[in-house]
Amino acid sequence: MSNGDDDPADASKGADAAGDAEEAADAGESTERTAVPTRPDEATEESLNEYLDEIAALLDDAETEADLDDVDALLDDAEDGLDEADLPEPDEDDEDDDAEDPRGDLEDRIGDLRESVEDARGPYAADVVDAIEAAVATIEDTEWTADGRDDAADAVDAFLETAGELVDVDAFPDHDELEEQAAALGAVAEAVADADLDPDDDADTVAALLDATDDLEAGLDDAEEWDDLETHEQLRAQGYYDVLGHYKDYPVEWSALKEHEKRGNVDMILLALDSLQSDFMERHCLEALERMGKRAKTDASLEELLGRAEKRDQFAISILGKMAAAEATETLVEYVPEDSNPQLQKAVFKALGEIGAAEAVQPLADQLDPQGDTADLVRPHAARALGFIGDTRAIDPLADALAEDDSDDVRAAAGWALRQIGTRDALETVAEYADERSFLVSTEAEKAERSLDAASATA
């Protein structure tokens, strides 16, 4: 029943639920269920609580999704009754946490019943699909040990066997191919979605599939991952210590590192760099790569060092220079004008020179002009880098620095760089300063003269 002020559409919700129960009785279904309640005519705290008691009893008897839909409709109806009820409001000035709030208590009770309805729903085929897709992601994203791959494969095999008995799917790949097994799980997920399993009629099938996915998840959780191993166990499993017969250096990781450097095992040095989280071993790993120079240049080492160089790591920049890693040129050229960090500039200039980066000629030449308080610290290094690169485009700016710069260090470095470029034009430019007052500059000029004389003698 409803009072005369109720909206007909709202009042019909409880009636609809009651009508469903009557239809079920007419169809011969069991009627030994709690009667469908109706909202009280007068909405008071007591009457609404009684209404919710009856809804809770109906929820306890619910057996199908339709039954739960009826309960949801009744809860909507109860909320409408609560909105219309004239209930006392708590005193805003009352600081007592236990102050009476009938409306709030009823709202909380309706919320709890709604949660119970959601908990009672399902299980659904979509839950099975989500669980399978989560297992696929685990398989594809996890780095397994050898034993772990085998255990994970066992878990997938068991799931596929169970799933094959419950849904129409033919997916039984080779046990040893975990990637193929992941694809097979995807095929099962598609088969479950296509089977259009009803949460009521096919509840047993859906529940069995969910039990199987729980077993699959547990099996994958138990399978051994690399992250489950201690660092030394990971290194041992990957053969890091295999190079050791006997050793005297401590720690043993350092002994193995020296042997890997001697043998040119760049991948093992990178493994140690990644795995051994200590400043001591990090320094020795990087020093090993630096000493190896071009021998240390691999795709993996470039990726590691470029990542560090992008964070302005001067040691990594130095190693890239020793490797003559042209791949680093673009990154390093960006740092050439950073006059606020002269130490970084010096490392970058040297590395670009060792790389022989022609793209750096103009940026380095720009650094020959006095700029700021730290200019004298870096300009000689810019000149020497141009000499290492050996590009003839640098002759004119180096000649200008030799003729006009106020710093003898810069002028001597420019003279040295011109000698490294080594063309007749470059050598003659330096040789003109043989009588220079600066010993450093005159020394470079004398060396240039000897080079010209030697070239003439062999002509």
TrEMBL record:
It comes from Halorubrum trueperi. Residues 43-53, 60-100 have a biased composition (Acidic residues). InterPro entries: ARM-like (IPR011989), ARM-type_fold (IPR016024), PBS_lyase_HEAT (IPR004155). This is HEAT repeat domain-containing protein. Residues 101-118 have a biased composition (Basic and acidic residues). It holds the Pfam family HEAT_2. Residues 1-118 are annotated as: Disordered. SUPFAM superfamilies: ARM repeat (SSF48371).
